[in-house]
Amino acid sequence: MKLYSLQSWDTPIEADFPRFGLQGTPTDVLPLTRRLLKWYDVYLHFHCPDAPISTITIFGSLGWEIDSAKTGYRIMREVETNQPFAAAAIALGEREGQFWAFVIGDEDEVDVRIEQIPEKQLNMLRDLKLQHAE
Predict the structure, then answer these.
(1) pTM of the predicted model, to two decimals?
(2) Contact, 62 vs 39, CB < 8 A?
(3) What is the rounded average pLDDT of the residues 59-63?
């Protein structure tokens, strides 16, 4: 049986996975970012006449916002030899409970995934309460 540990991944990629030809730290080489289209300086105008028909006009500016602060980099190493088994760059997705993952294996494997946590598990996480030990 082999034991593995999950650690923060801040070592150069070429030291852990030389076959991929990537040079530098994961934060430099694998910068996962989200581009979100957002409204700025928004002004809403409601026109609600007595009739059941109504209109809403939105004034403002649309702009792209780049968010890269929520990316995590983790590596799994064999405890006895400290050899890397797999590593991942993980970032939050565009919707609640969604995440993106770029995974490198110890062989010539790379996997890119977009996953969604099921609503039942999201509800469990929302209801999670932590107690402070006294």
Answers:
(1) 0.64
(2) yes
(3) 87
